[in-house]
């Protein structure tokens, strides 16, 4: 079953660290089978929506998304981020 990796950036505290993370994370996640479906700032928010950077990545399964997160290449990207952003990351199964 398809799964979705959803990242919401509540606060970016260091643009340079975020850029270093992005340079490593993109290839790590696509190399693990992820497909970027959306990323950037919202065009519109409703209800309690916050105007925060959002990223949506599709994986073949929850297990594939977990494996991508836990992979050494993605862990290297996280080390580069090193507190450069406050994020909410979740993996949600498709329906």
Here the CATH topology equals Alpha-Beta Plaits
Helix content: 25-40%
Rg, alpha carbons: 13 Å
Q: Secondary-structure element order, as H and E?
A: EHEEHHE
Number of strands: 4
Uncertain segments: none
Summarize model confidence as the mean pLDDT.
96
Task: Tell me what portion of residues adopts beta-strand conformation.
Answer: 25-35%
Strand order of the largest sheet: 2-3-1-4
The CATH class: Alpha Beta
Structural domain tally: 1
Can you summarize the main beta sheet? 4 strands, antiparallel
**Cα-to-Cα separation, first versus last residue:** 8 Å
* Architecture per CATH nomenclature, i.e. the level-2 architecture: 2-Layer Sandwich
* Overall form: flat
Number of helices: 3
- The secondary-structure class comes to alpha+beta
Record keyword descriptors for this entry.
alpha+beta, Dimeric_a/b-barrel, DUF1330, Alpha-Beta Plaits, single chain, four-stranded antiparallel beta sheet
3D architecture notes:
By secondary structure, the protein is an alpha+beta fold. The protein has one domain (3-93): 2-Layer Sandwich (Alpha-Beta Plaits), CATH 3.30.70. Helix content is 38%, strand content 34%. The protein has three helices and four strands, in the order βαββααβ. The chain has helices at 15-31, 62-70, 72-81, and strands spanning 3-12, 35-40, 53-59, 85-93. A four-stranded antiparallel β-sheet has the order 2-3-1-4. Helix 1 (15-31) runs antiparallel to helix 3. It is flat.
Please give the structural blueprint.
Elements: E1 3-12, H1 15-31, E2 35-40, E3 53-59, H2 62-70, H3 72-81, E4 85-93
């Amino acid at each position: 079953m398809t799964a979705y990796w959803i990242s919401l950036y509540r606060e970016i505290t260091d643009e340079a660290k975020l850029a270093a993370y992005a340079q490593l994370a993109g290839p790590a996640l696509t190399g693990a089978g992820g497909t970027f479906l959306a990323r950037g700032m919202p065009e519109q928010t409703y209800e309690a929506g916050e105007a925060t950077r959002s990223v949506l990545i599709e994986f073949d399964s929850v297990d594939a998304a977990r494996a991508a997160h836990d992979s050494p290449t993605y862990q290297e990207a996280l080390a580069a981020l090193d507190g450069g952003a406050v994020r909410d990351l979740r993996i949600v199964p498709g329906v």
